[in-house]
Amino acid sequence: MTKIKGLLIMDVDSTLIQEEGIDLLGELAGSGPEIADITHRAMNGELDFAESLHARVGLLAGLPVSVFDTIRKQIHFTDGARDLVDSLHAKGWRVGVVSGGFHETVDGLARELGIDYVRANHLEAIAGKLTGKVTGDIVTKSVKLDSLKKWAQELGLDLSQTVAMGDGANDLPMILASGIGIAFNAKDIVREQAPYQINVPNLALALDIIKEVRGEL
């Protein structure tokens, strides 16, 4: 069995993809500005993430589940996303995503890129419509950190062999716990604390940081 050389995990909204998925859903629900404001405040660390998620999801009640097909057409991978994933895979790495967004959109994105691990929230739907509730555990900052630790352990890796990247306050614990923590076009609170920064929208630049720190991929 080939030895796994490293693990990179990243946030999805405003990191793997250019958009905030829940904001797109909010627009279709007629609550766009209100949801976008809550998202902004949560990502800046001004609001408890779980509470903010419940508040935003509540505003989505009544949307048909077909809405996920609609917003997929509005979602764009961040430049360098495929290059990053493909390059890491070619070097014996694994890649995971941890999202405060929803499996209903994130799973498809992960399949497109061949991402190895996925953790996100589940939206409840009854009779083909969203109820405005989340089912199961919410992906909070502690869940993101736990996912990093769990996947690293499964792969036989020390945390020093991991990379974590994201833009929001709920990404900070995993960024700070990883061997290489990267703030990606991040909010001020994240940039102030993360060991490394990427401030242009190109995920492939993470490869340069990894090579600089580790000497090789």
Structure description:
The chain is an alpha/beta fold and 217 residues long. It has one domain (6-212): Rossmann fold. It is 42% helix and 21% strand. The chain has 10 helices and 7 strands. Strands 4-3-2-1-5-6-7 form a 7-stranded mixed beta sheet, with helices on both faces. The two termini are 19 Å apart. The model has no long low-confidence stretch (mean pLDDT 96).
Q: How would you briefly describe this protein structure?
A:
The active site is at residues 11, 13. The chain is of the alpha/beta class and 217 residues long. It is built from 10 helices and 7 strands.
Topology:
Elements: E1 6-10, H1 21-29, H2 32-43, H3 49-58, H4 67-72, H5 81-90, E2 93-102, H6 103-113, E3 117-126, E4 129-135, H7 141-154, E5 162-166, H8 172-177, E6 180-184, H9 188-191, E7 196-198, H10 205-214
Helix pairs in contact: 1-2, 2-3
State the end-to-end distance: 19 Å
What is the total number of structural domains? Answer: 1
What oligomeric state do the depicted chains represent? Answer: single chain
H-E order = EHHHHHEHEEHEHEHEH
What spatial form do the alpha-carbon principal axes imply? globular
Pathway: Amino-acid biosynthesis; L-serine biosynthesis; L-serine from 3-phospho-D-glycerate: step 3/3
Enzyme class: hydrolase
Cofactor: Mg(2+)
EC number: 3.1.3.3
